[in-house]
Predict the structure of Cytochrome c oxidase assembly factor 3.
Amino acid sequence: MHAPFISDMADKTPQESGARFATRIDISKPGLTREQMYFIRHIEVEQLKKKTQMLRTRNVVTGLAIGAMVVGIYGYTFYSVSQEKIMDEMDEEAKRARLQGPKTGAN
């Protein structure tokens, strides 16, 4: 028994089904009435609206999450820089060293 290839499966047309919900409607078929065409287009438009609304919501949530991360990193950077007192400490050490060091003509 061999495994079916994807290309073998793609070339086959779907089998006819007795179930009403599983039948596909060919919109290029001339036998459709104007009401059926309108209904098909109406359903397609509603599905498109639903998909775009889901994408819009997802995009907004993603944008807010990225913005919150950026603001968090920016705030943390400012907080950590304000806590740094390395330069102040170095200036104070240099000042103390000058005051406590020997007095020479170069000072």
